[in-house]
Every structure is written in C-alpha cells, then in structure tokens.
Amino acid sequence: MKPSPKKFNNPRARHNFQGRTCSILAVGSYVPERILSNADFEQLVDTSDEWITSRTGIKERRIAAKNECTSDLATQAALCAMARAKVTPEQIDLIVLATITPDMPFPSTACLVQEKIGAHRAAAFDIQAACSGFIFGLEIGQQFIMSRTYDTVLVIGAEKLSSIINWSDRNTCVLFGDGAGAAILRHRPQAHGLLTACMGSDGSQAGLLCMPGGGSSCPPTHESLAAGMHFLRMDGKETFKNAVTAMHTAAVEVLRRCELDITQIKCVIPHQANRRIIDAVTERLGATPEQVFINVHKYGNTSAASVAIALDDAVQNGRIHRGDLVLLIVFGAGLTWGAAVIEW
Ligand SMILES: CC(C)(COP(=O)(O)OP(=O)(O)OC[C@H]1O[C@@H](n2cnc3c(N)ncnc32)[C@H](O)[C@@H]1OP(=O)(O)O)[C@@H](O)C(=O)NCCC(=O)NCCS
After folding, report:
1. Could you report the per-residue pLDDT of 79-130, keeping only the tens digit for each?
2. How far does the centroid of ligand 1 lie from the alpha carbon of residue 266, in Å?
3. How far is CA 74 from the centre of its chain?
4. Considering only Cβ atoms within 10 Å of each terminal Cβ, which end of the chain, N or C, has fewer?
C-alpha cells in the first residue's frame, strides 16, 4: 500500500509501508458508579454549582468505592477494550499503564492488572507523565509494534484521584474524578493508524502541580501527613496559562508534520481538565466547536484516563468512524504535554 499523498503526509510511512504501522484496534473505558455532583460539593466546602460550572464546565465526577483501586478501574477498561478488539489475554505482549495514583508505590499497577486480566505472557510496567500519560503510553506502545518487537500492546490510563485529593481544599477538590480508559494497539494491514505523536516536558515548572509527600524526598511521617504533603497541590492560574500554550503548540506541531490543516480533522479530543482551557485551545487552533469532543462536564479531570475515556465516548457516540482523522492533545504535571494524529 502506498501512502495517500493527497490526503495527508504520514511521517512514519517511509519505504512504502515496508515497515509496520500501529493502529488502535479498539478502546474501552470504565468509570465508577458513584456520582458526586456540584450540589454535593456545596455540602462539603464553601462553593457553588454556579462557580464550578462557570470556571471549569464540570457538573459532576465519578468517585471510586473505598475498596475499588486504580488496578480495578484499569482492569474493567482493559477487559472492555479487549472484548471489542477480540483480543485474548494470552495474545497481549505488553501492558503500559499510565497513572499518578498507583495502587501502591511498587509493584507496578500494570503488574496487578496483568494478573487480574490473566495476561500471563505480557511484560508490564507503569509510566508516569500525569495527565499526559495516555499519549506517552501510545507513543511507547507504537515503538514496540513498529520495531516488530511485539504484536499486541495494551495501553491504559487509570486514576483514583479521589485518593490524593484534599477534600477540604475547594481550589482543587472540585476539579478531579476517577476512571480508566484503555486501547489495544496492533499493526492493521493497509491502515495508517497512529500517524505521529509529539511529547514534551519542562521540569522547571514541577512545583505548579504536584504531590510533595510520599516519595524519597518526603517519606510519610506524622508531620508530613499533618502538613498535608500527601495531597495534590496546584497553582491553578499558572497551570491554566501553561496548559493553553503547550496544548496549542503540540497540536500545531503534529498537524505540521502530517501536512494537515485543522479543517481536515474530524474530531479533536483535548485533555478534559477545564472547559475554559478547551475553549481557549479550540479558538487558537481555529477549530469549530463541532469538531471538538467534550465530556469534562460528566467526569471532571481524570488525569491519565482523561483522553482515553473521551476517545471511547466519542467512538461510542458515533463521532468517529473508520478513516476519520483524530487529533488528541494532552497536558499535565511535570510539566508534560503532547499531541497525536490518528487515522481511525
Ligand atoms: C482552578 C481554576 C478553576 C480557578 O479559576 P480562576 O478563574 O483561575 O480562579 P481564581 O484563581 O481567580 O480564584 C478566584 C477565587 O475563587 C475562589 N475559589 C477557588 N475555588 C473555588 C471553589 N471551588 N468555589 C468557590 N470559590 C473558589 C478562590 O479562592 C479565589 O478567591 P479569592 O479571590 O477570594 O482568593 C483555574 O485556575 C483552573 O482551571 N486552572 C487549571 C486547573 C487544571 O486544569 N489543572 C490540571 C491541569 S492538567
């Protein structure tokens, strides 16, 4: 198969596709049953539905049960994607799981998921790129498929952010939710699949969004717990500004590489952190509201799971069909950011 020069440039399809491409065979997602609405937050902290809706676009989010941890959410999403892709556990070669809320510091949550889904042949490891984790995971999975190291890769973004939220801090607690999304990657003959992805990081801004406690620099002590070091902390205004700039820049970069104009993109799926960030990125890109998929009102910010859940929602809602061009854009703590163009 020859790449179609009229439609777009596939930067990875050199040598007339003698190398392999990488497609998303199927996606799946899972969110916990319990819904926490803005009205519920009015009982918890000094806030209002009006404030949360106008500043963030969020109306409700899902909260995992006490005995439901990140590997449980990830397992449900993975099983959903595997069933849709008709992939058996034994066929999975690699599990890459992105999370900032692992079940425990070690072993990796990916190993716990491997056991829960019975993918006994697979190698499994976690990656940590905060809200950018799903695109970082796709990019890692793609390398293994294109290099013919592995045939079938399971990429998961999963979070139980409710476990690191300070429920008395109104600046942060209203923004986040729990959930998981998963994708099965494979070479699909005659398909372009993942055309290109870019990733970026800026450690000089690490303090803008972080959880300072629990690691080697601040192991848990009575004092660190009392000081709230084990909660997520954020400078909202600075994070906001960085998010808009980085997401726009990353999106422009991948469009440029594929010689695509934004009008050729069927569906833009930005990280679902805040409606105002999404609107600002949409405007800068010159995309129409009809092109942009938004579900932040239902789930809030689910970090590494965010674009994976949104991609699944978009596919299930008939917003994306085979052959459509999809643009994913992410941003998160680190700082980290990225974008990807996929021919679905
Ligand atoms: C957090 C965020 C919604 C705040 O919106 P904002 O317009 O920047 O709000 P401001 O910082 O101007 O705060 C305005 C006031 O609202 C208050 N406020 C904050 N949270 C509130 C809440 N849940 N309910 C009511 N008031 C709240 C603040 O205390 C502040 O009060 P003050 O002026 O008396 O100090 C916004 O900064 C944001 O979305 N940032 C990015 C967050 C994000 O997406 N992070 C993840 C990226 S991956």
Report:
1. 999 999 999 999 999 999 999 999 999 999 999 999 999 999 999 999 999 9
2. 32
3. 12
4. N
DSSP 290: G
Residue 102: both structure tokens together: 């692992």
The conformational region for residue 3 under phi > 0 = left, psi -120 to 50 = alpha, else beta, is beta
d(CA 258, CA 240): 28
Q: Which amino acid is at 320?
A: I
Half-sphere exposure of 113 (CA within 13 A, CB side): 35
- Position of tokens 């930067």? 11
Q: What stretches of the chain adopt beta strand conformation (E)? A: 23-30, 34-37, 60-63, 94-98, 123-127, 153-160, 178-186, 193-201, 209-210, 233-234, 267-270, 325-332, 336-343
pTM across the whole model: 0.95
Strand ranges of the sheet holding 325-332, from the earlier edge strand across to the other edge? 193-201, 336-343, 325-332, 267-270
Question: Which of 132, 134, 171 has the most ligand 1 atoms within 8 A of CB, as the residue to mutate?
Answer: 171
- Ligand 1 centroid from CA 56, angstroms: 9
The β-bridge relationship of strands 178-186 and 193-201 is: unpaired
Structural contact between residues 156 and 97, judged by C-beta atoms closer than 8 angstroms: yes
